[in-house]
Design a protein that fits this description.
Helix 1 packs across helix 3. With 175 residues, the chain is mostly helical. The longest helix is centred in the last third of the chain and has 45 residues. The relative contact order is 0.05. The model has no long low-confidence stretch (mean pLDDT 85). It folds into 3 domains: 54 residues; 55 residues; 48 residues. The chain has 7 helices and no strands.
Length: 175
């Protein structure tokens, strides 16, 4: 949701048409920055009422488009606002982000896809041939035998400890 309604923006435009400056409109409508009003005026002049309506969907820009925008800005030595206006980008901060990414990571940084990575399908288990199947079966049997042996040794250890406790009890009760 936009911070300001379309009605507020249109009211600011009407006041501008009546001859008030952006600072006067700022005070009258209680808007913190006059540059916000200046931006509304520019958008209204170029796109009409449609330029004041906040777009709900996030537009995705290709890396090639980002590079073209940054090159144009550099060649013409223009501001972010003028560049955004020329290319129909509603938020000037987007261009500043692209500029920073380009400065830090080069051209490749402009082509990085944002958002969640795509889910990859799980790899299917390959079918085993007869020798691999027999080896797998042999290993499973060996594993089962080792598990049985471990359980047997645990029980034997428990019995030995129990007998040791019983002998100590008998000796202490005889004394």
């Amino acid at each position: 949701m936009s911070k300001y309604t379309v009605e507020t923006k249109l009211k600011a435009i009407e006041l501008y048409k009546k001859g008030l400056g952006s600072r006067q409109i700022q005070c009258k409508l209680n808007i913190p920055s006059h540059s916000t009003i200046d931006r509304w005026i520019i958008l209204f002049k170029k796109y009409g009422k449609a330029g004041l309506i906040t777009k709900r969907t996030r537009k995705k820009y290709s890396g090639q488009f980002k590079l073209e925008v940054l090159n144009w800005r550099k060649e013409h030595n223009e501001s972010y606002q003028a560049t955004a206006l020329k290319y129909g980008i509603s938020n000037t901060g987007i261009i500043a982000n692209w500029q920073r990414a380009y400065k830090e990571g080069g051209i490749d940084a402009l082509f990085i896809k944002q958002g969640r990575p795509t889910m990859h399908k799980k790899a299917k288990h390959k079918k085993l041939n007869k020798s691999e199947l027999s080896e797998l079966e042999r290993l499973r049997l060996e594993n089962r035998a080792l598990n049985v042996e471990v359980e047997y040794l645990k029980k034997l250890d428990a019995l030995v400890q129990r007998r040791g406790h019983l002998k100590k009890k008998d000796e202490s009760s005889q004394n």
